[in-house]
Design a protein that fits this description.
The chain has 2 domains: about 100 residues, Phage tail protein beta-alpha-beta fold (3-Layer(bab) Sandwich); about 625 residues, TonB-dependent receptor, beta-barrel domain (Maltoporin, Chain A), CATH 2.40.170.20. The chain has 6 helices and 53 strands. The protein is elongated.
Length: about 900
């Protein structure tokens, strides 16, 4: 243990000049000779020779060997340094007195933090040295931490949500590599939310990122009882969705494709099932999730609105476990356990749905979203695999794999009478889509404070839809004629191969430096075709060959590379500066783009729990999902930037203030966002089809580029301790778009612009095994485009009349306000070593008929009649989960 400086120093008055020494100054040069002298004797001799008082402790030089010095015309301080060179000594010159004291060494404490029972490495654990003015750090996304401490004894405090606070005494007399193990806190139901994951001990980070409280997935009522990560994300301020989750996530006025979804650091292009009702993230496999709505670090790039970074669990290193869940819509099973105890583990997750009865139920209920059909089939499934192996304290490898998809099949007839005769339209639809991702990662500790992560990644998203349409007219005379007989094929495919390396250098407690690089090879196959079987030489049998032609002709390649640097600096006490720069290049279709993307965020953590922050970032996006601006669905095309389709650019500035203390917290953040080169089709999705057997290679000519603005104020308040907990999240915002080719060049509201958005949650713990949860959602209605004029168009042959609508202003009308109340009763108990959890409740308890869209009835009078359709009525909520 290091002895305090004051205890080391005692004054040794040396020399014979007892009255004049205080008036002397250090001599410029000294002649000094000493043969095989002890260090202490040499110092005494130097003091006597120069008359300079030297104060020191003889214990400082107990291990020093004898020294020999023969110096002429050398400065006093040079002689002093030669004498004391045998040990780490610092000195202080006070007038004509020199005080020697021990120079404290700095050592590095590094290692991993993991679950004591399972060996799972924990992300975002706060580790703080209580006796060193709060110096601390936090474990990274792989559970690694590094902390520099001066020589001495320390009390270390480790804290993490859902785990007991741990305090340990540690002596730092050399560099140490340590693995800390935290015990789970069985009293977790009493505390729902704690400090944000990733917050460092030196400064509590608020605002962005938001560590999503995954534990709330157990308690919140959701459709059918299916716990869902994206629905939890949608409860945050500044995050909008379509009605009942349809249409994807829209963060601060951004498009759905402007969100970067990462699963184990691999981009996911379509994060939803059932057109957005559920997500692909199986809760049984998720370890952590962090959301950036702005000011995200330079290591995240490729999207301009937000980042949702989802990490899966490693699996139990010590025992085999299983978690089974059954709800009204789906069931899941997760298996985990050791392959080699304390060295290697696995995690398997499966999820399947039994959604067909519900699809039929929704299709036959009044003005619910009506999916007519004689044979309706829908299903989705997920499979997760995680394997990891600890090679040594310095090396670890991971392999992650996910595959999931949806399939929808439907066929139906529509009959209606005209003045000409009976028309029968027959439709058949066969659609499938899904994601496949894989990642192979290697963690390596290059040195005590330099951590590296190298990843090979693969990501694939595929959508294909085949629509068959046949229309016949039956005249009163008995004559029959074919009005239409065609098939349409629509597909989008994107496939990525990439490699990236990231470095994290813990320079000192107040300075962490990150840098890295990546390279991605993209392959795209966007396209659509329409084949009319009424044309000579074409038949339904030709559709397969046409599809192969489309796949072969529509291949696009793109290459993307980037480098970045991020710095986390604490320049002063209670201040933190996060700055970064991302440089990227992109090449596709004879187009070469590059961009510099700066990021900056400054935060001050004041006394009594107050924080203030300001941030700025600029982002560029090279990949685009394009369709109509009305709704975001999987069949919208993913395309790269080309010579005609330039990259999107967004810059955003934020300003916020927050407070947290005693189980309460609140924060308010304002933002302004500018969007440049936002893309949309010039008309509806029908613009993709050119007719006949032509493909959609001209998609670039059907895209328009515009600008957008978004501004808002987000306010949240939360109580996270005690038997009654809850939160309020309110956003007031405005988002608009401007396309010269649309809406007569006038500004119009963004499709997911909602002026007011309010989310209230309340949880009451009745006993240690029973709690009640309620949630009320209110939002301003979405803007929509309605038909203003209807006229009747008659075919040239006069065989049939069709109703044609002329649309008014883009998004010139708003749907009624959206609101609903959800409630759930949660029971959780332990029977032996088996844990049980049951949820009973209801979604949309007062059966609010929230409008999903408005349809203009073609069979009404000339002015048309608007009919409102609803997506989800009141739904029961049930989930049973067992862990064993």
């Amino acid at each position: 243990m290091a002895i305090p400086v004051k205890a080391l120093i005692f004054l040794s008055l040396l020399g014979t000049a007892k009255t004049a020494w205080s008036q002397q100054t250090l001599p410029k040069t000294v002649d000094f000779v000493c043969n095989s002298c002890r260090t202490a004797d040499a110092l005494v001799a130097l003091s006597k020779q120069t008359g300079i008082n030297i104060a020191f402790s003889d214990r400082l030089f107990q291990r020093c060997p004898p020294i020999t010095i023969d110096a002429k015309g050398v400065s006093f301080l040079s002689i002093l340094e030669k004498i004391t060179n045998c040990t780490k000594i610092a000195y202080q010159v006070d007038d004509n007195q020199v005080i020697l004291y021990r120079k404290k060494s700095k050592y590095t404490l590094s290692g991993y933090i993991q679950d004591a029972e399972t060996g799972e490495r924990l992300i975002g654990v706060s580790i703080r040295a209580v006796s060193d003015k709060g110096a601390g750090s936090a474990s990274n996304e792989f559970g690694f931490f590094s902390l520099q401490l001066e020589e001495g004894d320390y009390a270390l405090s480790l804290s993490y949500i859902g785990y007991k606070r741990d305090e340990q005494l540690l002596a730092m007399s050399a560099d140490r590599f340590q693995t800390f193990k935290l015990q789970q806190d069985n009293r977790l139901p009493e505390v729902v939310v704690s400090a944000l994951p990733g917050a460092t001990a030196r400064s509590q980070v608020v605002g962005s990122p938001t560590g999503l409280p995954l534990e709330n997935l157990r308690f919140l009522p959701m459709p059918g009882g299916e716990a869902d990560l994206l629905r939890l994300t949608a409860l945050q301020t500044g995050v909008q969705t379509g009605v009942d989750g349809m249409g994807g996530l829209h963060v601060r006025g951004g498009n759905a494709d402007q969100n970067l979804f990462l699963l184990d650091d691999v981009p996911v292009y379509s994060p939803g099932h059932a057109l957005g009702l559920f997500s692909i993230f199986n809760p049984a496999t998720v370890s952590s999730a962090r959301l950036w709505k702005g000011d995200f670090p330079a290591r995240y790039s490729g999207r301009v609105a937000s980042v949702l970074d989802v990490r899966t669990r490693d699996g139990n290193f010590r025992a085999y476990e299983a978690t089974a869940t059954a709800g009204l819509f789906a069931s899941s099973l997760a298996l985990e356990g050791p392959i080699v105890r304390d060295k290697s583990s696995f995690l398997l997750g499966f999820r399947v749905t039994y959604f067909d009865p519900w699809v039929e139920f929704f299709s036959k209920r009044g003005n619910l979203l009506n999916i007519s059909g004689d044979r309706i089939k829908y299903r989705f499934s997920d499979a997760n695999l995680k394997w990891n192996y600890i090679l040594s304290d310095r090396d670890r490898v991971y392999f992650s794999f996910y595959k999931g998809g949806d399939r929808f099949v439907n066929s139906f007839d529509q009959d209606y009478y005209t003045t000409k005769g009976l028309i029968i339209d027959r439709y058949s639809l066969n659609s499938e889509w899904g994601n496949t991702i894989a990642a192979l990662r290697w963690n390596h500790l290059l040195r005590k404070n330099l951590f590296t992560n190298t990843t090979l990644r693969y990501s694939r998203f595929f959508y294909q839809s085949q629509l068959g349409f046949n229309s016949n007219i039956y005249y009163p005379t008995g004559k029959e004629a074919i009005l239409a007989d065609y098939a349409q094929l629509y597909q989008t495919l994107i496939r990525d191969f990439s490699a990236k390396t990231d470095f994290t250098f813990y320079v000192k407690p107040t300075f962490t430096l990150r840098w890295g690089m990546s390279y991605t090879d993209h392959e795209f196959q966007p396209g659509a075709l329409s084949a009319s079987f009424l044309q000579p030489g074409e038949s339904p049998a030709a559709i397969d060959s046409l599809a192969n032609l489309l796949v072969n002709n529509e291949l696009l390649d793109a290459r993307e590379a980037e480098v970045y640097v991020d710095a986390e600096i604490a320049p002063f006490r209670n201040w933190q500066l996060d700055i970064g720069l991302n440089a990227s290049v992109f090449y596709a279709s004879n187009a070469d783009y590059h961009a510099l993307q700066p990021r900056a965020r400054l935060q001050r953590s004041g006394p009594k729990g107050w924080s203030q922050w300001v941030g700025y970032y600029r982002n560029t996006q090279y990949l685009h999902q394009i369709g109509t601006f009305n709704i975001s669905l999987p069949f919208e095309l993913w395309v790269p930037s080309t010579r005609l389709v330039k990259p999107e650019q967004v810059w955003q500035s934020t300003l916020g203030i927050g407070w947290q203390r005693g189980g309460w917290s609140w924060q308010a953040e304002g933002y302004y966002k500018r969007l440049d080169r936002v893309l949309s089709f010039i008309s509806s999705n029908e613009a993709l089809y050119t007719g006949g057997a032509e493909d959609a290679s001209g998609w670039e000519d059907r895209i328009v580029s515009g600008v957008g603005n978004s501004r808002g104020l987000e306010f949240s308040i939360e109580k996270n301790r005690g038997s009654t907990t809850g939160s309020l999240a309110y956003t007031i915002s405005k988002a608009d778009r401007l396309f010269p080719e649309l809406n007569s060049g006038k500004v119009f509201p963004f499709r997911f612009d909602r002026r007011h958005d309010l989310k209230l949650t309340l949880r009451q713990r009745v006993t240690h095994w029973l709690d009640l949860t309620g949630m009320w959602i209110f939002a301003t209605g979405n803007p929509i485009t309605l038909a203003g004029v209807k006229f009747i168009h008659e075919s040239v042959e006069g065989q049939v009349e069709r109703n044609v609508f002329v649309y008014t202003e883009v998004n010139g009308y708003r749907l009624p306000n959206y609101h609903r109340f959800d409630a759930a009763l949660n029971v959780h108990f332990l029977a032996g070593k088996t844990r049980h959890a049951i949820q009973l409740g209801a979604y949309n308890t007062y059966n609010r008929a929230n409008p999903f869209f408005v349809y203009v009835d073609a069979g009404s009078n000339i002015q048309g009649k608007a009919v409102q359709y609803t997506l989800l009525p009141i739904l029961p909520s049930f989930r049973y989960q067992i862990n064993f």
